[in-house]
Inverse folding.
């Protein structure tokens, strides 16, 4: 029996969503003619549009389902992923890194690496990013089908192919413009479709204070129980959270992952580009009011047998409860017909927008950093747009293939979810040194990045295959019994450290580029001032300070 | 999207946001008056009704913002 059954009005709501997104694709087709239109949405967005798209590209349904379920396991600590694990990096990107990205007028992050260093590091990053993006897109598709089959009884093949066809349709037609439009629609759908779950949960429990009442000590704080790894459910210390999540993983993702940074590139001017992640940071900080509150409500309900709330078993492992079903079960508990359709549409939109983000980033990196860089350097603008459209369809098909592979071999998920710490965490060291130290050389960056990626991968495989002795595990993770989460944070940290040290060391003994070659790419050789003098209330620094103050206040309040 | 490409201006994204929210809001209000096939917790508070009204009002605001933005950009184009 399905967890949720749909009434005709729910189907109408779901169908209208498909009509809208395909209609948007068809409508935007006529405005998408040049490469700048297709790959960078005409580079004329305001910071509001780019900022909401920047956040939405990261705000997939997987994240919402996963962290609502994760809250049942880890408690309040999940808020770290929305606060220290995101906000400082977003503000840093807006204030300090965006001028180098935006001023160099590049199409992609690998494009910056080409200008700053050389072709080989661009290719290394382009290929690793393309592979990572396609795999993530495929896994996203697989998990979407798994969730909808479990809670709604939908057919695997039908839900994968229908959503893939819809995404392929509107991205092929409108490129990044379509992706951004639908990401913003998705942002609002998630809020109106899912925030009500938290509201009704709080109402049922009798008020906001009751949500936090009677929580175990190990789950009820964000920082107070991180002095020792054993005192919290994540089994990680404050140092692991601050270094692994707050610094390496967070900065690695938010400042170098082209999937999100591409949205800022679509801004109309430097101020808008800098404001893009800063604007997004305010909405990011608010997301725990959906995710964490709903997770705590689910935890409280499941702890009280009289409430009749129990998680479903995992379809791939019936002995294990599947935390990702917490949010769908809450939807089934509170939502009458109509609202159920809205809640399912919000999840569907979250899955599809996440997928569209991956595909639009993939087609840009493939077209500019592999096709034009290696295969056809003299490609015309029309040929690039054509290649972007073809790549979109190929990317979607490869995602579907990956989804089918994941369906057959579930263990592939463990590997794919760790890819990020192999690719992005070391890359942040490369970017940091490249942007802020002009002595960084191409050889240092290339070999440092390879060393960092290998280190992170080797630690992951060492733990996976049980090859890491206990003493080394203690050294690597600062914990006697590290959780998967703790290992993930530390393998990323070590990847970053090794990349940083190798890049630094090799750069000191190899020849750097001249100042003339680094104009507009490195601090000290780039004009980062705005073209027009801005009033204090329009300055990115003012808004970043406000966001940072809110971050501090939230952490103190929920300490 | 405010002004994509060097082409004529498309409708602002806020128009589409307003459109979908308004339609969904009205559907939610209607849904509250339809016979309920199953009982849900807190059904007596009519969540579809008041959430539908909030969504409709929010959608209408975005529609106004989107249409005003469209009008302003059309005037700017006429001047140019």
């Amino acid at each position: 029996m399905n967890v949720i059954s749909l009434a005709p009005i729910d189907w109408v709501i779901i169908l209208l969503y498909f009509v809208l997104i395909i209609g948007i694709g068809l409508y935007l087709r006529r405005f998408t003619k040049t490469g700048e239109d297709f790959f960078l949405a005409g580079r004329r967005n305001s910071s509001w549009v780019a900022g909401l798209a920047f956040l939405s590209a990261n705000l997939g349904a997987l994240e919402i389902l996963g962290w609502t379920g994760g809250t049942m396991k880890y408690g309040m600590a999940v808020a770290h992923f929305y606060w220290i694990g995101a906000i400082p990096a977003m503000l840093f990107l807006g204030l300090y890194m965006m001028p180098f990205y935006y001023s160099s007028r590049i199409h992609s992050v690998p494009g910056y690496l080409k200008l700053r260093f050389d072709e080989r590091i661009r290719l290394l990053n382009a290929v690793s990013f393309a592979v990572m993006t396609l795999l993530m897109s495929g896994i996203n598709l697989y998990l979407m089908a798994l969730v909808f089959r479990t809670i709604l009884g939908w057919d695997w093949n039908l839900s994968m192919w229908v959503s893939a066809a819809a995404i392929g349709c509107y991205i092929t037609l409108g490129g990044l413009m379509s992706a951004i439009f639908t990401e913003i629609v998705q942002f609002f759908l998630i809020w109106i479709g899912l925030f009500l779950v938290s509201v009704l949960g709080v109402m049922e429990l009798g008020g906001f204070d009751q949500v936090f009442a009677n929580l175990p000590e190990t789950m009820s704080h964000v920082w107070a129980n991180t002095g020792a790894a054993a005192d919290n459910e994540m089994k990680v210390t404050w140092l692991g959270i601050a270094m692994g999540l707050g610094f390496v993983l967070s900065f690695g993702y938010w400042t170098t992952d082209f999937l999100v940074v591409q949205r800022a590139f679509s801004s109309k001017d430097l101020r808008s580009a800098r404001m893009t992640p800063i604007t997004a940071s305010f909405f990011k900080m608010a997301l725990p009011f959906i995710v964490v509150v709903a997770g705590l409500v689910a935890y409280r309900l499941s702890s009280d047998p009289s409430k009749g709330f129990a998680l479903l078993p995992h379809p791939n492992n019936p002995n294990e409860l599947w935390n990702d079903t917490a949010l769908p079960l809450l939807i089934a508990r509170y939502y009458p017909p109509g609202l159920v359709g809205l809640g399912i549409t919000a999840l569907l939109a979250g899955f599809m927008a996440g997928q569209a983000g991956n595909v639009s980033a993939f087609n840009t990196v493939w077209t500019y950093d592999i096709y034009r860089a290696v295969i056809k350097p003299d490609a015309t603008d029309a040929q690039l747009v054509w290649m972007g459209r073809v790549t979109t369809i190929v990317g979607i098909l490869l995602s579907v293939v990956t989804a089918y592979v994941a369906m057959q071999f579930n263990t592939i998920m463990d590997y794919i979810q760790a890819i990020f710490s192999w690719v992005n965490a070391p890359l942040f060291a490369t970017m940091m040194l490249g942007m802020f130290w002009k002595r960084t050389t191409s050889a240092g960056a290339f070999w440092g990045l390879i060393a960092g990626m290998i280190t992170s991968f080797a630690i992951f495989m060492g733990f996976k295959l049980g090859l890491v002795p206990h003493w080394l595990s203690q050294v690597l993770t600062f914990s006697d019994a590290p959780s998967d989460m703790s290992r993930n944070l530390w393998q990323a940290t070590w990847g970053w450290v090794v990349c940083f040290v190798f890049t630094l060391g090799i750069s000191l003994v190899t020849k750097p580029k001249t100042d003339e070659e680094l104009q507009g790419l490195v601090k000290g050789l780039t004009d980062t001032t705005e073209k027009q003098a801005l009033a204090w209330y329009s300055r990115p620094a003012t808004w970043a300070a406000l966001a940072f103050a809110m971050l501090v206040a939230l952490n103190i309040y929920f300490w | 999207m405010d002004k994509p490409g060097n082409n004529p201006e498309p409708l602002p994204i806020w128009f589409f946001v307003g459109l979908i929210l308004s339609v969904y809001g009205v559907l939610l209000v209607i849904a509250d008056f339809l016979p309920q096939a199953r009982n849900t917790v807190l059904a007596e508070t009519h969540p579809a009704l008041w959430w539908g009204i909030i969504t409709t009002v929010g959608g209408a605001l975005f529609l106004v913002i989107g249409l005003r933005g469209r009008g302003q950009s059309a005037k700017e184009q006429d001047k140019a």
Remarks:
- DSSP finds 21 helices and two strands in chain A.
- The beta strands of chain A are 313-314, 317-321.
- Residues 156-205 of chain A form the longest helix (50 residues).
- The mean pLDDT of chain A is 87.
